[in-house]
Amino acid sequence: MQTTSRQFLLVFLTALLLFFPNTNAFAANENLFAHQNTTIPEKQNVENIIVMGGDVTVYGTVRDAVVIFNGNLTVKKSARIQGIVLVIGGSIHQEPGAQVTDNILSLAFDSATKNSLFIAGIALFGFWLARMAFSLVLLVLPVLTAYVMKQRIEPFARLLYRSPIQLLTVGFIISLSVVALSILLSITIIGIPFVVLMLLLIILIFIVGLAAMSMIVGEWLPGNAGKSAEIKAFTGTGVIIACVNLPFFGSLLLLCLLWISLGMMAMWIREKMDKKKQAL
Questions:
Q1: Ramachandran region, residue 228 (left: φ > 0; alpha: ψ -120 to 50; beta: rest)
Q2: Which percentage of the chain shows pLDDT scores above 70?
Q3: Are the beta carbons of 102 and 90 closer than 8 angstroms?
Q4: Where is the signal peptide (predicted)?
Q5: pLDDT at res. 111
Q6: pTM of the model
Q7: What gap in Å lies between CA 132 and CA 144, rounded to an integer?
Q8: For 29-67, how does the pLDDT look when each residue is reduced to its tens digit (9 = 90+)?
């Protein structure tokens, strides 16, 4: 409990220093916080040291953490640091004989680090932008499909009402078959265009299936009774997109939606063929 209280006090005072960076060095409960070059004499014993924008030289004893932002740390041979050492934006120099009993972490903003952070930032921004674009496409295409197809999309919705588990199972089997067929076709150059066409067909089927599922979800939402198919598809798609963007669960949901769409199209084609056979 005492250790937790000390850590909480350390975090609180660090945040205070960040909000008031011009604060002079002060000591509270044997914790030293400063915004200037700081030296701990050989016989001095402190709990924590937090310095922002200044160098620290330790001759004495630090019983817990040493945290430095934008400054360098020099640990003399007479020094003893019993906690973690964290230096951000600076370097660490430790003389032989100095005792540091915990981990030492240093993040120096040299060219390599800046380039890595820049590349990581660009990658994260690109991922976020791609995700936003994907969500926008998922929002627009099902609504347009519901508007264009109108009553023709209702048979797909009825299939989903009737046997969702069957559609999921059939779609899963079809997806495995598609993957196997794509691998076989990709072996030869002639088969690659067929793979591309097959993928485009799957995307089209997914959009139609998503439109049907969006209409069903939209019907479940309060206030949508008697609304047009486009309104139901729009509100339903919004709910689906929100769920798809959830971590971990969203990817699994998107995969299930694809399987249901494939199963929906397969069952619809089967019903059409059965009706033609009965007509003959």
A1: beta
A2: 85
A3: no
A4: 1-27
A5: 63
A6: 0.57
A7: 18
A8: 467 777 788 888 888 888 888 888 888 899 988 888 888
Distance of CA 105 to the CA centre of its chain: 26
Q: pLDDT value at position 7?
A: 52
- Give the 3-state DSSP-derived string for the chain, with helices as H, strands as E and coil as C: CHHHHHHHHHHHHHHHHHHCCCCCCEEECCEEEECCCEEECCCCEECEEEEECCCEEECCEECCCEEEECCCEEECCCCEECCCEEEECCCEEECCCCEECCCEEEECCCHHHHHHHHHHHHHHHHHHHHHHHHHHHHHHHHHHHHHHHHHHHHHHHHHHHHCHHHHHHHHHHHHHHHHHHHHHHHCCCCHHHHHHHHHHHHHHHHHHHHHHHHHHHHHHCCCCCCCCHHHHHHHHHHHHHHHHCCCCHHHHHHHHHHHHHHHHHHHHHHHHHHHHHHHC
Burial of 76 (0-12, 13-18, 19+ CB in 10 A): middle
Hey, which residues does 75 pair with through a beta bridge? Answer: 58, 94
HSE value, Cβ hemisphere, 13 Å, CA-based, for 242: 8
- Domain boundaries defined on the chain: 2-109, 130-279
